[in-house]
Amino acid sequence: GLGLPEVAQRLFPQVPELHTEILQCYAEHYVANSKGDVWFDGVADMLNGLRERGLQLAVATGKSRKGLDRVLAQTQSQALFVTTRAASETKSKPHPLMLEEILAETGVSAESAIMVGDTSYDLEMARNIAMPRIGVSYGVHTPETLRQYQPLAIADDVPSLQQHLLQYFYLKQVI
């Protein structure tokens, strides 16, 4: 989704002096009360399977770098990803800069990659550079909202996401 500064701006556009306070309070509350981040059931196996098939995996997140690094450490998943981008170090979604940076670093074209996202911001970011995309309905936004961004598919669970990804990359190799 969006980076926290963008959320504060959207919620309180007329009160910019609140933005810093909101960010500080959120960060303090989140860190103090976080029970740790975990994957949805099946995600770790799916990601490992995709890596074993030779696919490059990357993360483009609205989290801060500190937040992303904490999640990667908690899930012990740093080694799964060839690169990561956080909203605190580049433009936030839906601007496509973080995807463009990932593509440049990996040498992959937008047409050869695929974005998986659970928000309209994820899918809009990918659409902004003509990157194929798949929505997941078990996250933030509804399937109806995600469909507005013309995803190749909407996955309702991790097994269907894995099936869509494997079909997409298999078809790319055949064509």
What key phrases describe this protein's structure?
about 50% helix; mainly alpha; Rossmann fold; about 180 residues; three-stranded parallel beta sheet; two-stranded parallel sheet
Structure description:
This protein is mainly α and 175 residues long. The protein has one domain: Rossmann fold, CATH 3.40.50. 49% of the residues lie in helices and 10% in strands. The chain contains 8 helices and 5 strands, in the order H-H-H-E-H-E-H-E-H-E-H-E-H. The chain has helices at 4-11, 17-33, 43-52, 65-74, 97-106, 120-127, 143-147, 158-174, and strands spanning 58-61, 83-86, 115-117, 133-136, 153-155. Strands 3-4-5 form a 3-stranded parallel β-sheet, sandwiched between helices. Helix 1 packs across helix 2 (17-33). The radius of gyration is 16 Å and the shape is globular. It starts with a helix and ends with a helix. 23% of the residues are buried. The mean pLDDT is 88.
